[in-house]
Amino acid sequence: MSEQLPDCPCKKDLSRRNVLVKIGAGMNALAAGLVGVPLLGYAMSTFTRGSKTSWVSLGALHNFPEGETRLATYRNPNSKPWDGETADIPCWVRRVDAESFQVFAINCTHLGCPVRWFQESRLFMCPCHGGVFYEDGSHASGPPPRGLFEYEHKIENDELKILGGYVPTLAEPLKKEDKA
Amino acid sequence: MMRSIALWLDERLHLAKLFQATAGHHVPSNTNSWFYVFGSGTLVCFILQIVTGTLLAFVYQPSAGEAWNSLQYLNNQAFLGWFLRAIHNWGSIFMVAIMSAHLVQTFLFGAFKYPRELTWVSGCVLFLCTLGMAFTGQILRFDQDAYWGLGIGASIMGRVPFVGAQLVHLMLAGSIIAGETLSRFFSLHVFVIPGTIIALLSLHLRLVLTKGINEYPQPGHVVNKETYATEYEQLIEKTGVPFVPNVIGKDMIFSAFLICAILACSLFFGPMGPSGPPNPTLIHTSPKPDFYFLPVFAALSLLPAEMETFLVLVLPVILIAALILLPFYSGTGEKSFRRRPVAVVIVLLAFLTVGVLAYEGTFEPWSPHMEAWSSAPTPRDQLKARTPLELQGAILIQGKQCRNCHALGGEGGLRGPALDTVATRLTRDQLIRQIIQGSGNMPAYGKNLRPAEVTALVAFMGTLKHSYQPAARDSSEHGSIK
Prior knowledge:
The complex is a heterodimer of chains A (about 180) and B (about 475).
Chain A: H1 11-48, E1 54-60, E2 69-75, E3 88-95, E4 101-105, E5 116-118, E6 123-125, E7 132-134, E8 139-141, E9 153-156, E10 159-164
Chain B: H1 2-13, H2 15-21, E1 26-28, H3 38-56, H4 67-76, H5 81-108, H6 117-140, H7 144-157, H8 164-172, H9 179-211, E2 222-223, H10 228-239, E3 240-242, H11 243-269, H12 294-302, H13 305-324, H14 326-329, E4 333-334, H15 341-363, H16 372-375, H17 388-399, H18 428-437, H19 451-461, H20 475-478
Antiparallel strand pairs in B: 1-3, 2-4
């Protein structure tokens, strides 16, 4: 089946060369691994590790009148100096009464577009595919598979704080506080 | 003198041999056809994209804080910067269009059949890479649409079971859209995908040389694995002509026409965007993808919600697999589209689907018109000779933002039915029930309307019909069948 090698004076060399090729291939496989593993680790590091969440302030409580829903923004706690305006993250704050709040992510649960609050009809509407939510964040109409994403929040020193620093998605709707 | 230089070069570079093996290779004379110009046309677009892209990178800043400003500088200050941006933008549109034509032509001409399976497979992957370039390029135009486009991408990734969250992190380079996200897409757009395209393109062209270009198919001439190679050899022997200079003429004319068309579009329509700055707190925006992704954008709204995740994640995989594997389940037999009605129907259906979805995506009838409640006035005719209570209802229709979803006099949202003749469809009781409880796509307004407001609204809506139309009536009360 295989072609006959022509007789040549180098025939003796061949076996020796074969050994060298094998050693060379082995060494290169090792070298490829040594280069490849850290490169892959670098490139894929974000696959396993998301950035940490932390408590950020949305401002003093008196900014949020009772019974109203207001747009608030916070600085992404993991922002880098070159993030520019993208580090300012908006969210909707609903003050139900003196003590209780709801903080909704700006992102529609359908595909992440920014929902807008309509005070008169007390609805959140999404400009992309027509998702609509009631004022308590529950699903009212359209393609979204669930109600609005809610941030974990707490009141500290007369300030409203939320656990921010991520885009909520269906895979990761609500993050708990990092243990670390 | 010239001759001696040429000979000197040829002796070292073997140019004559190279020419014979590549540009001068023999092709069947029947491929000298206007149907065969789309491949070279796509290549010309690609070269134009490389040149203009490289030049744009002289100025562009791949930094989330600066990208938008550098685009403004290109548009308004850099000498001919706007023109470069326009050519790059229109070049990408033409590249996708001409490449689609190439795909359709090779599909209809059976070019994917034995022995050109790998040519087809590499071409399909090139097509996907080009769409990848279109998407990443749209992200580099780091404006509002790009920002929320990334959000849409992340949301789709987040629907993948088990590793959704990890894929979101991988795509965004973290758990939020920020500077590193843009850097990642810059690297993909400028290094990773173009590198892949160049490698695959080399394979694609190499295969055209080794396996020959597909002959112009004749109806009734069937591909048979045993005999095809000999038949093709005989065809080349009988009718073969060198590609250069005998066949390349049409390609050259088409390419020149293509470049002129791109330049004309760039000149007349200018560059696209950037739209508003990528500031997520500016939420008064209606994100929309570039036109190549409008069909997908539309499908995402029109799919039934309960099948959406399945269809968005699985259907593309099935379609792409069916496309790539085509030569392996349909690799022999008839080549001519005159004898392949199913192939023709598939192409027509694909055009129809993409066309209809793109049309719907352009007008977005499913999206509320966010400003309609305050910007679209109530038509005068519908206010004439109304009682004070009815007029109060007319005010509520505006004030409660009903117009965002419901049109009056052709103005307003298309999400819900127009209300111009609603009184012919719903009785007073049905109107009250619909408003308070909602149903279908309509939210329930029970909590947001006082009883007096509902009364006023329904009183007004009860007048919304033409005078010659009968009002809706409750068949259970009056007994419509007598």
